[in-house]
Amino acid sequence: MKNAEFDSLVPAVPFTRRSFLAGSLATGFTLAAGPVMAQTAIVTDSQGLAAGEIKVPVADGALPAYRAQPDGVANPPVVLVVHEIFGVHEYIKDICRRLAKAGYMAIAPELYARYGDPSQLKNVQDALALAAKASDAQVAADLDACVAWAKANGGDIDRLGITGFCRGGRTVWLYAAGQPRLKAAVAWYGPLDGAPSANTPSWPLDVAAELKAPVLGLYGAQDQGIPQSDVEAMRAAIAKAGGKSEIRVYPDAGHAFHADYRPSYRKEAAEDGWKRMLEWFKSHGL
């Protein structure tokens, strides 16, 4: 699918035709995140939904993704869902179904499909190494391709949002600075600052003055990987730019507090954040 409407919105990416190393999505939960907390993992059924794996046309092939939306509803608003370093596994699929139950067409692309199969990884270090292979430019292009797919398949891209978790939360901030179609964004504990590299030349703190859509950032005060100094610096940068983005910090939560399948899950913070996310989307036209 040629998608000229979005081609000019992201940096040029040198594509080559190739077979994606992950041709389909994982089943079940990721192994790399550790033991699954079955007693807290939320299970959302697909009753009343059109849900399942799709293939999104991209310049170098077909990108596997998970889509869920209310069945029989015309022109639903669209929310892109950006996964953690663990790829699109059952948790991310369930997020899509939860959003679909709230009225959205939710699409979660497997952003590491070119480089490996996240479902086969056994530890966090291997997951981080795989994630590092996907450049910010590539990720933005793949998200734009999902927007094009949504438009071609009945989604209302004039009501476009995005949410993401962990590394996906970082992507949310960056995409909000580069995609003018976005109406609202919600970043769950996405890293805000780091060392620039060829694949990650900019960080959210670098683009705080360039946000084209308001972002709601959801963070945990006990996060060992995202210092509160970064959170306060992001708040200050947003305020200096006169932006409408906001950051909410949960005092008793750490990293991955929404991940209901992991020991890091904090029910109260997760439920409050989810409620705030839906309110954020609705208040900004989704």
Roughly what fraction of the amino acids lie in strands? 15-25%
Secondary-structure element string = HEEEHEHHEHEEHEH
Count structural domains. Answer: 1
Q: How big is the Rg?
A: 17 Å
What's the number of extended β-strand segments? 8
Strand order of the largest sheet: 1-2-4-3-5-6-7-8
CATH architecture assignment: 3-Layer(aba) Sandwich
Tally of contiguous helical segments: 7
- What is the CATH homology-level superfamily? Alpha/Beta hydrolase fold, catalytic domain
- Please mark out the parts with pLDDT under 50 across 5 or more consecutive residues, or reply none: 1-18
CATH topology: Rossmann fold
CATH class (first level) name:
Alpha Beta
Major β-sheet profile: 8 strands, mixed
Query: Which bin fits the share of residues in helices?
Result: 25-40%
* Average pLDDT: 92
- The helix-and-strand class reads alpha/beta
Distance between the termini: 26 Å
The coarse silhouette is globular
